[in-house]
Design brief:
The protein has a two-stranded antiparallel ribbon with strand order 1-2. It has nine helices and two strands, in the order H-H-H-H-H-H-H-E-E-H-H. The chain has a single domain, classed as Hypothetical protein af1432 (Orthogonal Bundle), CATH 1.10.3210. The protein is globular and about 40 Å long. The protein is mostly helical.
């Protein structure tokens, strides 16, 4: 019997699932670029063992919850959609932990999510979270540029400042493994 933790769709199935759930084309294109960037980052990591298949599929499906909403809770909806389909909890956690730089309990509560930590823990989660922050739509940007755009749009809020610091820490942690 296959362990549920090992159930991952392949790339074609993941892309078809996004289409079937009517994830907007712009979000699907973004997700493909995030997957490409995540694989690029993963391939540079030499000092740790990574599940590159999980990284690719997780990156493709990280925004699956945008089939229902574009709010913060798209992360939770994405995790729920994947669990309902019998996919790995590892895959569902990627959805739940990619928003901003991850959210701690206090920040989750402030944005209307259930009060718990949504922080990327595994290297795979961190790589996808980082790759996502490097993509503004389908265009690759620096972390600084991505956050500057959010600061312009939403102001220099405590949540965004904490998120930026968290992402910079994740980036440094991953670079030290290269």
């Amino acid at each position: 019997m296959v362990n549920k933790e090992e159930i991952l769709p392949d790339r074609d199935f993941a892309l078809e699932l996004l289409r079937r759930l009517k994830v907007p084309l712009s979000v699907r294109r973004h997700s493909e670029k995030v997957a490409d960037k995540a694989i690029e980052i993963a391939n540079k990591v030499k000092k740790a063992k990574l599940d590159v298949n999980l990284i690719e599929i997780g990156a493709l499906l990280h925004d699956i919850g945008r089939s229902k909403t574009h709010g913060f809770n798209h992360a939770l909806i994405g995790g729920k959609l994947l669990r309902q389909r019998g996919f790995s909890d590892k895959l569902a956690r990627i959805c739940e932990t990619h928003i901003l730089g991850g959210l701690d309990k206090q920040d989750a509560k402030k944005v209307g999510l259930p009060e718990k930590d949504y922080l990327p823990i595994t290297l795979e989660e961190k790589i996808i979270c980082l790759a996502d922050k490097h993509m503004a739509g389908t265009r690759e940007v620096s972390i600084q540029a991505r956050f500057n755009r959010w600061f312009q749009k939403y102001g220099r809020s405590k949540i965004l400042l904490k998120s930026k610091k968290r992402i910079e820490h994740i980036q440094k942690e991953i670079e030290e493994l290269m």
